From TrEMBL:
InterPro entries: AsmA-related. Keywords: Membrane, Transmembrane, Transmembrane helix. The keyword Transmembrane helix applies. One of its GO terms (cellular component) is plasma membrane. GO terms for biological process: regulation of protein targeting to membrane. This is Membrane assembly protein AsmA. It comes from Pedobacter jejuensis. The chain crosses the membrane at residues 12-30. PANTHER family: DUF748 DOMAIN-CONTAINING PROTEIN.
Length: 959
């Protein structure tokens, strides 16, 4: 027995040694095969650029599997995101099928390991995705089965320490998962297989429409998903999630479509506690929950069903239901707990459209002892036009409520009573208001937070609302009074509002408020508010008095003083700083008696009035009308471009997305849509794109989101310019304009050096010295950097060469070289008028004549803004140029080519520009050779189009 045992141990040792030897030798025997076939596979199947440092073949990184490992891998996205990282990882390892490698010389991958990775999945606002990097192989039916190479038959996927960011601008979804560990097992290479998943995420953020529904949540998932690769469908079979302490089970399926997704998901969290439900709240509430006793049962159900497709404008339907039964909240400091907390809430959101939002709060009730009770039933359907039915009643001691909830850093006192019933349709547009009766009263209120040492005290509010027939006509709102005291400064507001169809108002406001300090009471990170507001207003009148011109019946008077106010808007990158604003109300007008503000490096002083401000602020629609004198020492237009960097974090989602997708772009200036204001403009200096404009004076106006300049003059490059213009933004990235300009006696060389547009539109100006005048009209579009999109330009006009020298213009010099006339290098063009028309990136030149010694040449034809030439030069011979030699000039402005005794050159096909999407479909290019008659016909058509475009610009400006 000893001998047998010894021999067995010896052979076992030899076997182990042999296996260990193989584990060292195999990586040495096959490194070329592995490395070569991995590169072949990557180049064949990946459209995105792939970079990595080293490859390793070893048994020991993921023992006992033989793995080929790639260190420090970076995979870039698909078009148009080829410069953006899609995936980076410290290690990517693929498990190799040992049998296929040794006996067949093939690399078959059946396991994938990825560690310390960052995946940046991105879909822009147009629906373009960066993850389309995999290039599928040929159809299986045509595959050559004799071919050897790399293949994938996955049975295991293991991710460790991932950071995954999914940012979908088209769906307005952000998902950010950090510390993600994932293990997936199954026959991943089969057409239909079950994927067993174990998933854990340390921190999970989820937002929709820039609203966060989950922040820094822990998630664990145990899932079984049936995947059909033929139909790109995922069937959720066993799916158990835990979000913090809240368990969640769901089932259903997901299908990936060509233009989006198709979903049918049902989820439930049943028989859980209120404490479990609270655990999914934002992090700032979790500390409160730890120190507060929470009891009671809760259930949560939701479904997400339907298709999502950006091109077809389809979105799924979301429904949710939340139950809380026999809840109890208590704190050791509270005299009584919150008992009998019951909640039954339904939410229905068809097509994820807020305008179709349905909310059914079947019950919300709780007690704080026998004298402190609250009951509410609310049902709504719609948003801007809302069908609402509600019944709210309660009487609460705010101090008891505060102690019962155990709120930290927040104290409140006072007796709150409310009794409100409403039933009917609310619509601002149709002037409908539900039948309503009720009141809300607060006595001896008091609020204090840890953010500021002093409270807001002596808060008293008595407000009532009544509506008898469901229209604005019978609506009555009365506030008598609303008052409070802060820092020893009392504020009083009394309001009596009746008949909202033709509002009869009586409002009294008086007080001094330090909004910087009061904001600290309710401080919020990321925002900065400061300044003083002093009001002494008495407003008494009816809406129709102002609109019908019955100003004598109005009794609006008083003053409003603002000092050191900071203000942001959603479309400007910086903060407005109102240093001083003194406003006086006189019946229908709000006078700006003293107004001085700064914005970045820009400053503004206003004097004038706004009309009918009371009506505007009551209705919250329409436009504000006014007339002002605006003075400024300096205005820097660049600071107003929507995507410029600044201190304003409260930007619209459209601007945030545009900036994320175009990080190097400035955007365009966005104009407020609610202003109808005339301005008498006077500015000492204006800066734009490095260009300085001096002494601007004229009339400007803002109307319905457009800026108009009328007979506005200014000094530029030492010359006087007068313009009429119109500007309108279309998005944060595009805008359109019309302009008619007249410039007297400006220096050509200075203009060429200092103005980008001159260099682009008049490339030959670099060979011109002297003084010219200009009378020109243009319309077109601005791009994402507020530069003209040249193929969009249309218009025309006249350039007068008053006193100029044209030296070494290549187009003329090449003619002079061939005829032996040096005078072509310095022709006499003084006093010549050159009429041109622009359309589709081509400049059409009307025939003009000039002098070259005893010769009388003339020029006409077409040139593109990119320098292509199709010009006819007729060299008039003495006497008087009656006999002319035609010369066709083609090629480019830098390399012209000539054909003597030819009236036809080679045509230029126009650029094609889509104005609706602000996109150049095709650059201009050389036309195929055509007969002289065909070229002349095409030239006449193009010139006619250009002249029509000029007339259209002129008509638009006149309108």
């Amino acid at each position: 027995m000893k001998t047998i045992a010894f021999k067995a141990l010896k052979w076992f040792g030899i076997f182990v040694a042999f296996i260990l030897l193989l584990m060292f030798l195999i990586p040495l025997l096959f490194p070329g095969t592995i490395s070569k076939q991995v590169k072949v596979f990557a180049n064949k199947h990946l459209a995105g650029k792939l970079d990595y440092k080293k490859t390793h073949l070893t048994f020991f990184r993921h023992f006992p599997s033989l793995t080929v490992s790639v260190d420090n891998l970076i995979l870039y996205g698909s078009k148009p995101f080829v410069s953006d990282t899609l995936l980076s990882a410290k290690e990517v390892a693929a498990g190799i099928n040992l049998k296929s490698l040794i006996f067949d010389g093939e690399v078959k991958i059946d396991e994938i390991y990825v560690g310390d990775a960052y995946a940046n999945v991105f879909v822009n606002s147009k629906g373009d995705a960066n993850y389309n990097v995999y290039v599928s192989g040929p159809d299986k039916s045509s595959k050559d089965t004799t071919e050897k190479g790399t293949s994938i038959r996955l049975d295991l996927i293991k991710f460790r320490n991932w950071h995954i960011k999914y940012n979908d601008h088209s769906a307005k979804i952000l998902l950010d998962a950090q510390g993600l560990d994932y293990t997936g097992k199954g026959g991943l290479s089969e057409d239909i297989f079950d994927l067993k998943t174990d998933l854990e995420i340390n921190k999970l953020d989820f937002s929709l429409n820039d609203i966060y529904y989950a922040q820094q949540k822990f998630l664990h998932a145990d899932l079984i998903t049936r995947i059909n690769t033929n139909a790109l469908t995922l069937v959720l079979r066993k799916n158990e999630l835990r979000i913090n302490d809240l368990p969640l089970k769901f089932n259903g399926w997901v299908s990936i479509l060509k233009e989006g997704y198709n979903l049918d998901i049902n989820a439930a969290s049943e028989n859980t506690t209120i404490s479990d439900m609270i655990s999914v709240l934002p992090p700032q509430y979790l500390e409160w929950a730890k120190d507060t006793k929470l009891e009671g049962q809760s259930d949560l159900f939701f479904t997400l069903k339907g298709k999502f497709s950006k091109p077809k404008d389809l979105k799924p339907r979301l429904t949710a239901r939340l139950f809380v039964k026999d809840g109890k909240i208590s704190s050791s400091k509270a005299p009584v707990p919150m008992n009998n907390l019951n909640l039954d809430l339904d939410v229905d959101l068809p097509s994820l459209n807020p305008e179709q939002l349905g909310v059914n709060l079947k019950t919300l009730s709780f007690d704080l002892g026998t004298k402190n009770t609250f009951r509410a039933v609310v049902k709504t359907k719609g948003l801007s036009e809302m069908d609402v039915k509600a019944d709210v009643k309660g009487a609460l001691s705010l101090s008891i409520l505060n102690e019962t909830l155990g709120l930290k850093d927040f104290d409140m006192k006072g007796l709150l009573k409310a009794d409100l019933k409403t039933n009917g349709l609310f619509s601002m547009e149709k002037k409908l208001f539900p039948k309503t009766s009720g009141y809300i009263n607060l006595k001896n209120g008091w609020v204090k937070t840890s953010s500021y040492p002093n409270p807001i005290s002596d808060i008293n509010l008595a407000a009532s609302v009544n509506n008898t027939d469901g229209t604005f006509g019978s609506l009555m709102v009365k506030i008598d009074p609303f008052k409070f005291d802060f820092e020893g400064n009392p504020v009083f507001i009394h309001a009596d509002l009746q008949n909202f169809e033709d509002l009869l108002y009586k409002v009294r406001v008086k007080g001094l408020l330090n909004i910087g300090k009061i904001y600290q009471v309710f401080a919020k990170k990321g925002l900065d508010v400061s300044g003083l507001v002093k009001a002494d207003l008495s407003l008494n009148g009816r809406q129709s008095y102002a609109s019908n011109g019955q100003y004598s019946k109005l009794d609006n008077k008083g003053t409003l003083i603002l000092k050191n106010i900071k203000a942001n808007t959603s479309y400007l990158p910086k903060t407005f700083y109102l240093k001083e604003g003194n406003f006086e109300f006189q019946n229908e007008k709000m006078w700006f008696r003293k107004f001085y503000a700064t914005y970045g490096k820009s400053d503004f002083s206003l004097n004038g009035y706004l009309d009918n401000t009371i009506n505007y602020f009551l209705e919250r629609k329409g436009s504000l009308h006014g007339n002002f004198a605006l003075q400024s020492n300096f205005i820097l237009i660049d600071e107003f471009m929507a995507l410029k960097s600044g201190d304003n974090n409260d930007k619209s989602l459209d601007i945030k997305y545009a900036k994320a997708e175009n990080p190097k772009s400035s955007g365009v200036v966005i104009v407020p849509k609610n202003l109808d204001v005339s301005l008498r403009l006077k500015a000492k200096k204006v800066g734009f794109k490095g260009m300085t404009i001096n002494q601007i004076g004229g009339t400007a106006s803002l109307e319905k989101g457009q800026i108009y300049l009328k007979k506005t003059s200014f000094d530029i490059i030492g010359s006087k310019m007068t313009i009429d213009a119109r500007y309108q933004d279309e998005s944060p990235l595009t805008a359109n304009f019309d302009v008619a300009l007249k410039v007297l006696d400006f220096d050509v060389q200075r203009a060429y050096k200092e103005i980008d547009m001159v260099r682009e539109l008049a490339t030959s100006a670099k060979d011109v010295n002297g003084i010219v005048s200009l009378d020109y009209k243009l319309k077109g579009d601005f791009d994402q950097n507020m530069m003209p999109i040249y193929p969009s330009l249309e218009g025309g006009g006249v350039v007068n060469l008053r006193d100029v020298e044209v030296k070494n213009l290549k187009m003329l010099s090449v003619i002079g070289d061939n005829v032996g006339a040096d005078a072509f290098n310095n022709p006499d063009m003084k006093g010549v008028n050159i009429e041109t028309h622009i359309k589709n990136n081509l400049i059409h030149i009307e025939e003009f004549k000039f002098k070259v010694s005893v010769l009388r040449p003339s020029i006409s034809g077409t040139t593109s803004l990119n320098g292509l030439l199709d010009i006819l030069v007729k060299v008039g011979l003495p006497p008087a140029g009656w006999i002319a030699i035609p010369v066709a000039v083609i090629g480019t402005a830098e390399k012209p080519k000539i054909k003597f005794f030819s009236r036809t050159g080679q045509g230029i096909l126009t650029a094609i520009y889509n104005r609706k999407i602000n996109k150049i479909i095709r650059e201009e290019k050389r036309a195929k050779e055509k007969s002289p008659a065909e070229q002349r016909k095409e030239k006449r058509v193009q010139e006619k189009k250009a002249k029509t475009a000029e007339k259209t610009v002129d008509k638009n400006l006149n309108d």
